[in-house]
Amino acid sequence: PVPFDWKDPLGANNLFSEEELAIAETAESYCQERMLPRILEAYRNEDYDRKLLEEMGELGLLGSTIQGYGCAGVSSVASGLITRAVERVDSGYRSGYSVQSSLVMGGIEEFGTSEIKDKYLPRMAKGKLLGCFGLTEPNHGSDPGSMETIAKPHPSKKGYYSLSGSKTWITNSPISDLLLVWAKLESTGKIRGFVIERDQCPPGTLETPPIKHKNGLRASITGMIHLDGCPVPEANMFPDVEGLRGPFSCLNSARYGIAWGTMGALEDCISRAREYALQRKQFKGNPIAKYQLVQKKLADAATDAAYGILAATQVGRLKDEGKAAPEMISMIKRQNCDRALVNARALQEVFGGNAVSDEYGIGRHVANLFVTQTYEGQSDIHSLILGRAITGLQAFC
Ligand code: TGC
Ligand code: FAD
């Protein structure tokens, strides 16, 4: 019989091409050798090193599905394998990576003019220019359609819009050079996308204060965006997309990535819990891995991780064939985030009191996975998106 591989229980590696496996290998080596040694101090100190994105840029990992502009142009499955490698280390590192690659570079690639793409994408691909994505507002999270940020013709600068409003919980906003901000055009009431260059904003028109003292995702920097009559060139508005289709199209790619990433985090929890359980002895010198209740936790988690990888692979293949409905992405985003969180919490119990020490890594994953279940559409919101698609009836309000 074929031997069972607990690290790849359903043989998902058989579904990946040689090229995809090589990309995964590059990403895993970088993440384990260069990212992992930094994470404990970064998490303790709420520190995000922007050099990480430069290093990923050097390896060709940023905006990896984009063709041209110095990007690798790989398959969606390959990009998922990169995301899984990054989140195996930490969801916060994956967050910084997703915002740069999927939300901002992806948005610019899909909706930007050729001038915008030429101007920003090559430097973003190298990690020299950092982006953030401003959709959520203090009063409008799950319901971004009600946003209050407004764009209107600038009163004194011809050829410019003036943007005013506040965004909150924005990954990378304090350190970003480029801000993709979604605002309503005052004249039409329709949502439009604006690319703001921090360097070009006069003093007092753009502030991006950090949000400190987070109890999850501490190795990712999060902040607000305050706009007060901020002048933005008309040429920096996405010309052909209006309404929520703009931001949600970017979110499709990022949500897809999270479905992969959370499986990486869960796989790391499994690996850490297995190792701990084999070494820790209780009752007559037995390793706790010998006890059925511990084994069930490992079996549950390994099963959910294996199913999650297969589902993400299937949606990735369909995405590249243009056959992935957004609801499929809601399904894998919700399922993989939820199962990663539930299983990580169960595996945390295997560590007993040591789970409380940050040296064991498990508590960090649990705290992070709560965030992944919350951002890019909280799981219950994805339930309602699926419920609407199943029944034809919408239950949001
Ligand atoms: P609804 O009527 O559903 O749709 C309005 C318009 O948008 C279009 N649309 C989509 N287009 C492309 N892809 C999708 N997935 C789409 N979903 C909807 C839709 O076709 C329609 O187009 P049109 O042309 O007819 O106007 O809008 P609604 O207001 O009823 O939406 C409700 C709901 C709950 C589905 C939606 O608002 C939602 O998904 N809420 C969750 C909010 C969210 O995900 N926020 C994410 C913020 S960004 C973030 O969290 C980044 S974290 C990054 C990190 O650190 O990793
Ligand atoms: P709310 O919308 O207030 O929801 C609170 C609770 O109510 C949730 O459980 C929700 O499911 C539930 N709820 C709401 N409406 C309904 C309903 N109709 N039916 C049933 N239940 C409902 N946003 C960005 O734009 N860019 C970013 O880069 C970004 N990064 C983030 C980083 C971090 C660390 C965090 C924590 C958040 C980030 N977000 C970002 C914001 C994130 O997308 C929002 O937090 C998320 O969409 C939920 O919005 P909210 O926090 O306002 O919660």
Automatic annotation (TrEMBL):
InterPro entries, alphabetized: Acyl-CoA_Oxase/DH_mid-dom, Acyl-CoA_Oxase/DH_mid-dom_sf, AcylCo_DH-like_C, AcylCo_DH/oxidase_C, AcylCoA_DH/ox_N, AcylCoA_DH/ox_N_sf, AcylCoA_DH/oxidase_NM_dom_sf, Glutaryl-CoA_DH_mitochondrial
GO BP terms in the entry: fatty acid beta-oxidation using acyl-CoA dehydrogenase; fatty-acyl-CoA biosynthetic process
Domain Acyl-CoA dehydrogenase/oxidase C-terminal: residue ranges: 243-390
GO cellular component: a single term: mitochondrial matrix
Source taxon at top rank: Eukaryota
UniProt keyword Oxidoreductase present: yes
Record keywords: FAD, Flavoprotein, Mitochondrion, Oxidoreductase, Transit peptide
Co-factor(s): FAD
Family the entry assigns: Belongs to the acyl-CoA dehydrogenase family.
PANTHER family to which the protein is assigned, alphabetical: GLUTARYL-COA DEHYDROGENASE, MITOCHONDRIAL (PTHR42807:SF1)
Name by which UniProt lists this protein: glutaryl-CoA dehydrogenase (ETF)
Organism the protein comes from: Glonium stellatum
Native organism taxonomy: Eukaryota, Fungi, Dikarya, Ascomycota, Pezizomycotina
